[in-house]
Design goal:
Largest sheet: 4 strands, mixed
Order of helices and strands: EHEHHEEH
Shape: globular
Distance between the termini: 20 Å
Structural class: alpha+beta
Strand order of the largest sheet: 1-3-4-2
Radius of gyration: 12 Å
Length: about 80
């Protein structure tokens, strides 16, 4: 799955966010705070090397990345 795009209403976002967390996807803002280069994570996802979810909630777009794959990329020095 390289990038999956999901569009939803604001009222559905809380339950879907919980579902993504249970499946191992973490918000790009979390990775940013932890020192990851989010633009490199996005490039890896666009290249098909990492799983990501592009979540559109109204006019807002949020990115979620696979936690395991992001950690491995960080250990390899890719992000």
């Amino acid at each position: 799955m390289a990038i999956k795009t999901v569009e939803m209403d604001r009222k559905d976002s809380v339950s879907y966010r919980q579902l993504m967390k249970e499946r191992g996807f973490i918000s790009s803002s979390y990775f940013s705070v932890c020192g990851f280069d989010v633009s490199k994570l996005k490039k890896l996802a666009q290249q098909g090397k990492m799983d990501a979810i592009r979540c559109a909630i109204g006019n807002s777009v949020r990115w979620y990345y696979s936690e395991k794959q992001a950690e491995l990329a960080h250990l390899r020095g890719e992000v």
